[in-house]
C-alpha cells in the first residue's frame, strides 16, 4: 500500500514540473533548430598535412557559427570555427580552422594518446545509423594528440581505439586540424544514399569555453540525440576490414624467496613470448576481435589496500582487451571483467584439513587467459549484437611436506566465460536489451548462468523516462541448482532544471551474479526517491549549480526485516573564477541492521545512528599549479566513535611537456567497531556444543595513502611516465565484545596467542615506469619497469616514516618487460605488394 501511494505523488510532481519547464522554455533566449550540412565527394584525396590548400577544400560547404555549451550555454562563438567535410570511396576527410586572438591564446599542452591536458581541441562525432544513441568521436589537439571514443546508452568509452590519420598546424591567429577517418574505423549501413548524425566540438581552454556546431543543451538528457545531420553521402561501401597486430615480448622477474630462519634470497624468471590480436569485418556492421595468447604483464598495478569489510575489494580494469569496445557487454552491470584471469575459484582449498602438515610453496593469485574473442556490431534497424568468449587454463598450487615431497592441487579448472547481448535501439533515446552470461568449468566444479533484461522508454520530448531491469541467476552444482532473481523499476524526469526520480529494487537471497559479475549485497528490497534542481546559466558569482536531495529505505528480503534508512543530499557548483566546490551529507537518523558484518548467516549487528558530511574543492586547471582538496567527518551515537579524513592533491605543470601530480590522503577512525573472529565450541569428538561466538572489537584504524606520478611527453607519439603508490594502514584493538542475537554488544574475554593478535600493520607499494612510442599508426614499442611490495603483520609500527622506510628496504618483486606491437592492415599491405 505504501508503494502505491508513491504513484499519485509522482504524477503530481510530473504535472508541476511540466508547468515549470514550460515557463522556463518560454523565458529562454535561445531556440536553435537542428542543423544539417552536405559532404562533398572528391576523386582525389587531400594530403593530410594540416594545410587546407587544395582547391577542393574551397568548394566544400562550411559548418560554422558554433554555439556555446559552457560555461554559459547559448551564445554564438566570437572567434569563428570553420569545418568542411569531403569523402571518397575510402574515407571521410575533415578540415577545420579554429580562429583565435593570437598563438598565446591557443593552449597546447602535450599528452599521451587519449589523454587531454591543459589544451584546446577539436572533435567530430558521427552517428552513421542515425539512431541518436550510438556514435563515434574523433578528437585532436593543436599538438596533434589523438583521442577517440565510442558513445552508447552506457555513456562514453574512451578505451576504444581506432586507426586514423591527422595533422595540425599552428598559425598566427588560428590553428588547423586535418583528419582522415577511414571507413574501416567506423560502421555504417550498405544503403546507396545515407544520412548520418554529426556534430563538431571546439574547446577553447584559455577561457574554458566549449562550443558545438549543433547546440547541445546541458539541461536536456542525452548526447547523440542532440547532433545535426550529414547529407550527401552516396555509393560508399564498407571495405574489407581485416587487420593483424602481432606482438613479441620479453619479460624478466626478480622475486624474493623466504627460507627457514628468516633469510631471504632472490630468484629470477625469464620469458620470451608472442601472440596476436586480429580484427575482421564479418559484414558492414559486425566485427570479430580476437586475442591469441594475450600478454598483460605491462598493465598498471592495482592499488591494494587493507580491506576490513565483509566484501571483496573491487579493482579497476587496466587490460586493453577488456576495455576496448566492450560497451555492449557492460550493459546492465552484469559483467565484471576482472573475474577472467582473477583469483582461482578454489585457491582456498590448500588450507583444508586434508592438507594439514604441508607447506604452501606457491598458490597463484591469478589465472592465465588462453584466448579471447569478441563479435559485435549493429544492424541498420538499430539491433546491436555482441558475443564475448574467453578461455582460462588450469591453475595449480604446489605443496610440500616435511620430507620434501611435492604435491600439486588444482585450484582452477579449465574455464569458459561467455556473454551474449542483444540491444535494440528505439526512438527517443530508448532501448531494450537482453543479456546472458555463462561460466562453464571442466570437471566437478559448478557452472553458472545469468539472464537479464533491461529497458528504457522515454517520451517524445525526452523529459520523462521509465527504466528497469530484471535478471535470473543460476548456479549448477553437482547435486543441486541454486536460483535467484532481481528486478528494478524506475520512473524519472531526466531533462529540465527540475528533475526527480523514484525506483524500487529487489534482490532475492539466492541471487548471485558473481561468477562473471560483481554484487556486494543481495537479499534486500530497496526504495529510493530523489529531487534535484540544477542551474546551468551563470548567476551571482557562480557559473552553474547542481543540487540533489533524496532518501533510501531498505529492508531484508528474507526474512522481511528493516535494514537501512538514509537521507542524502549534495550541492556542487563552479564559480566564475573556475573554482569548483561541493558539499555532501549522508544521514542515518535511526538505528539500522547490518546483516553482513557478523560474517555468519542469521546474525545481525545493530548499527548506530550516524551523520556524515564531506566537502571538496578544485582550483582552475589552467594554472601551472592547481590543487584539489577534500575532507569528511562522520560521527556515531556509540562511545566516542567518529571518522575524520582529508586529502590534498596538488598538480604542477612545469611546461607543456613535463608535469607532476601528487596525492596525499589521511583517514582516522576512532573507536571503530568491527568483526574480529568467530569462536566455535566443540567437545573432544569435534561436536559443536553451542552456538558459536561472534566476536567484535573496538579499534583505532588509521590509514595514509601517498601517490606521486609524473610524465614527460616528448611529442604526440612518445612519452615517459612514472607512478608510485604507497599505502600504510594500522589497526589496534582496545576492547572485545560478544555480538548478542539481538544485535547488541557485550564485553567479552577474547584470548589469543602471541602470533594470533588481531592487530594489523599493512603496507603496500607499487612503482610503475612506462616508456611508450607509437612509431607507426596502431604500432607501439613499450618498455615497462614495475616494483611491488605487500606485507600484512600483526606487530604494529606506529610511525609512518618507519613503515615507509621498512617498505623500501624490504625485498620486493621487480619486473622488466619490452613489448613490440605492429599493426598490419590487409588492404594497405595488399596495395604495397601490388605497387612493388
From TrEMBL:
Q: Which CDD domains match?
A: CBM9_like_2
Q: Where is the signal peptide?
A: 1-19
Note whether Signal occurs among the keywords. Answer: yes
- Taxonomic superkingdom: Bacteria
Kindly state which keywords UniProt assigns to this record, in alphabetical order: Signal
Short name of one Pfam family for this protein? CBM9_1
* Entry's Gene Ontology BP terms: carbohydrate catabolic process
Start and end residues of each DUF5916 domain: 239-832
Does the record's keyword annotation contain Transmembrane?
Answer: no
GO MF annotations for this entry?
A: carbohydrate binding; hydrolase activity, hydrolyzing O-glycosyl compounds
Location of the Carbohydrate-binding domain: 48-229
The record's section on InterPro entries has:
Carb-bd_dom_fam9, DUF5916
**Protein name per UniProt:** Uncharacterized protein
Q: Which species is this record about? A: Pontibacter oryzae
